[in-house]
């Protein structure tokens, strides 16, 4: 049971990853970004999720360095994730992209590095590069994002190291049960991006009824549902009050009936691109 903001799941190589983190998708470089990351860490968050394409790794790095200076928190206590973008997929180009991300973040190593999207004909070479970076100790864990079952099957066929994480769009309208079951079977930790469906579920009547029952917000109920389903979750917010509120999900537990009610909202609806049909 996940009872604390700093509780972790053990990835299949033994690395401990926090169940809960903050995402910075679409947060531009600047004071707002730096403040959001610092606020999160000072309120107990230990996991920060960025990506090359977000173009904000420098700001995330700045926030991290400032927090390390201002508090007693050490680099080892933080869990920092970035992702290689589609244009850089390939053996040499992925290694170069990793080095660029590391430099921008101002770090000596990453905790998790992901292939952002399964670009056909490119992701296997990129995976070989991730295996190299992992074997060299430059990253503690490697994984993928937006991979469907068939992508994972294809990758695992030749992989020397199995992905430790698959981070996908996941929320009550897109529960991806089959994909999660496949990941569980293969020891791949399931992770959620856009857990709140970019805010589209925050006025859902059924979720409101459940939230009222627990005296919680809809966002808190959804994030708790993620955790109880064994899904690592990284809600994005830049507002201090929301960052604190999002993390206030460890003092209640959803009943089995309510978990099933939320599962029942699934309609296989995406707010992001379809991993089987994207052109970027």
From TrEMBL:
In terms of superkingdom, the source organism counts as Bacteria
* Lowers pKa of active site Tyr (site feature) positions: 83
- Tell me where in this chain the NADP-dependent oxidoreductase domain is found: 31-266
InterPro entries per UniProt: AKR, AKR5G, Aldo/ket_reductase_CS, NAD(P)_OxRdtase_dom_sf, NADP_OxRdtase_dom
Sorted alphabetically, the keyword list is: Oxidoreductase
UniProt-annotated binding residues for substrate: 116
PROSITE patterns linked to this entry:
ALDOKETO_REDUCTASE_1 (PS00798), ALDOKETO_REDUCTASE_2 (PS00062), ALDOKETO_REDUCTASE_3 (PS00063)
SUPFAM superfamilies of this UniProt entry? Answer: NAD(P)-linked oxidoreductase (SSF51430)
Q: Which GO terms describe its molecular function?
A: oxidoreductase activity
User: Could you tell me which CDD domains the record lists for this protein?
Assistant: AKR_AKR5G1-3
In Pfam terms, one family for this protein is: Aldo_ket_red
Protein family per UniProt: Belongs to the aldo/keto reductase family.
Protein name, as recorded: Glyoxal reductase
